[in-house]
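Step 1: inspect the first sequence and its tokens.
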Amino acid sequence: MFSKFKTSCMITAVALASILPGQTSALAASDNGIHIKNNVSININGETLKVSDPIVNKSDYLFLPMRALYEAVGASVDWKKETLTASAIRNGKLVDLTIGSKTALVDGQKVPMVVAPFMYKDRTYMPLRFVSENFGGNVNWNPTTQTVDISLTDEIPGKPQGDPYILHINNDRIVMEDPIIVKQSRSYIPANYIYDNLEDSSGTLLPDNSFELQIAGMSFVFKENSNQVLINDEVVTMEAKPFMQNGKMYVPVSFIVNALGGNLRYIEDKRELYLYVYQYMYTSSFLEKSYGATSKPGNVPSARLEGDRDLLISDNPETLTSKLIPKSTATLAQYQVKATSATNKHRVFGWHYNTLGTDVQIGITVQNTSSTESIEVIDSKGTSQQTGNSWVGHDIGLTIADATLNDKLKKSSSKGIIIAPGETKVIESYDLLRDYIIGFLHDLDIKAVNGGTPEYTIRTVLTKNNSNLTSILSDPVPIDVSAKHPRGAWTNSTILAELPAYTVDSPEVGYNISNSSTDHFLTTENSLSQINGAIGNPGHFGMNYKVSIPLVNQTGTTKTIKLKLAGRGGIYSGAVKVNGKVYLVPTLRVGTEYVELPDYIMQGSSEKLELEFMHAGGVNLPVAIYVETK
């Protein structure tokens, strides 16, 4: 969607703040823009540093002689004369600075600098703040007293104690080398974790020691300990204040997320921060939530299954426990395909919560049970999402629904594979972390290579010990009868309901879809897979639900049709396509919240409104559709 531009930068300030106007009397003029600073005091952990050679200023940045600086901060240094490079180590951290170069190497990573080290009177001079902060120091400059205070610890900087901090940015999970810091109930993280993990983003240290963070064309310019931020060159006051720690600029995450449009949640006891930026996470935009009661709808009077893609649901057992999954490997769901044609289309929808106490791997496999006919996977694409968060409808369900309705399923490497008679191959695999939930949807098309009738079994399988997924050919584990989540296989993955014709200027009408009654075709009894139990899918999870609304206008004038959606069984969210454009339905509370779809302008005497739904996993059904004339 975007081209990736990353600046490999540790957000280090290169030197001290600019010399304030009126302080030029403290400078002794010298050559090449270098000025001796006669009255600067430098304190390290409360002790005043005594330096025999002069402290100098160049381009409004303070520099110290190399040996004096590195000895003061407790770093050992090796001078490479042939390359004019100083390699210094403190607490296992390596910093390489080269004379005349504005690029440093910090633990092997390139770090841009505003000014370069230089030679002055046969001495090598290094930037004070850059060196101090990259060796774990906090630096404060007092322009009134002309004092630099540096606080150093003997701890290895940037390595949080205990379990690591985990950052989730949309669908990426990052194990952080730095802590998440909470100040006054606000979460801060180093800016590099944002621009390193979002496309079309970058980070740049500016000459005035401010830091510019660019995300998707929006510019944020932060200054240390200032609540003034420039957003696209406009000054905005925020309640939070960014700060430097261990040479990195910590920025207020909630401020950035709110500015971009997204959501944020920090689970402190798990040290996990979930950061969502909607323009990266979703293709579609959210409908605006409205508040108020809605009338009681009737059930959609009729519906039917359609399409040629069948459906395998792997959602039971949903919560994976040692009691339900006692062995090291298991089949979670399976479908023995009884093909009637050479080419067959399938959809696999899965939803599982890992409470097994260990990380596991889940896979979709196909076993060719024919003794003579090879089969080919002629198309294979899907989407998946995981979370350790409790917002499963938002984190997982909406992303799957959005990708499916927008035809944004990702191509799988299994497309084009040939499965010989008796062979089993992996279609897709997923690493599921302990205490995480996964949702996945995968479409695959399979044909007989020689045009015969194929015979094969589709499975979702699990391993706790990294066993080969293709070796798992057991029957499905028994269903969890205490939790009525669906499992089974059915002939179709699309359902169509045509509502009664609505005549303009008639009173509002409302209809429930996925109501467990008039449109419940995916029952326990008609599942094509019954081994060790099946449970129906009345909520149509993993399905495309199409709704056709005939409109009649005999007035001879243009009319505006208004559509509303409301949850009727509990918390609801999902995606809806309206005449070809997809919108996201935010979380709706039953009875008090609803969304309005874009108005439909009716100019003819007879027209049809076409809707298509996909319900987010983890939500409650039914959902009501209301039609009225505006």
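Step 2: inspect the second sequence and its tokens, then contrast the two.
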Amino acid sequence: MLPLVLDSPHSGTDYPADFAHQADPSRLRSAEDSHVHDLFTGALDQGAVMLDALFPRSYIDPNRAQNDFLPASLVAAEADHLPFQLEPTVKSDLGIGLIWMRVPPDGEPMYPQPLAAAAVLQRLAGYYQPYHAALRECLDRTYRTFGRVFHINCHSMSNQASAMSTQPKGTRRPDFVIGDRDGTSCDPLLTQMLYEFLTAQGYQVTINDPYKGVELVRAYSDPAHDRHSVQLEINRQLYMDESSREKNSDFGKIQIVLKQAIDALAPLLHTSDAKTAQ
């Protein structure tokens, strides 16, 4: 077993019956981090733990703060029905906050009308909160066993930015993006070792550009207490056909690269002895 937990919050494909969106399903699927949970099977063989969401991020996104939602996206005056104050970020402005309100890639409205506060609370209780509870349990259990835990928050990105991105439409993405919230979410060695391994394989890798890590990295990182979180974004063009969403001929190659990346972290993962679980 390794002191390593991975999670894939955006690869879910089980669309709830009450979604009630007005989107073309094929376009809606472009929001999915397709096959990401399958890319990391090698890490499981090495003793890591992995959690992946079954529900789609467009229904509710566990990688957003629960209050990252525009008041204008709710039925009039129903913001007062929520047990917290809404604090929307640029993600909500783009239609990709807690609940996606726009359809990728061009940003048409997701719903014919604003959502009821009760619908938001139902999604939080039925999907968002259970995902966070499950991830917290994985991390805490690993921490109790080893006295430290490393967390890789796993994602994929389209090869080019869409109209719903913080980048200009058409911007080409690198092969990998490592996000450590500007060096605050993990031991710098974790970022450095991932970067050095991936660049040594010939890949273009950036750090915190354009992705720094969002809620799941923020919420569960505490490097001062040996809780280290990093976000890893993988360019979909490396392993899949973005149009058909099918795995491409290099899928197995990327699986091997990611397994080797975990191997490369061994000196960091094994720097302290495991302790007996409390």
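Step 3: confirm your contrast with the notes below.
The CA atoms of residues 95 and 101 lie 5 Å apart. Strands lie at 4-8, 49-52, 102-103, 108-109, 149-157, 176-179, 205-207, 227-235.
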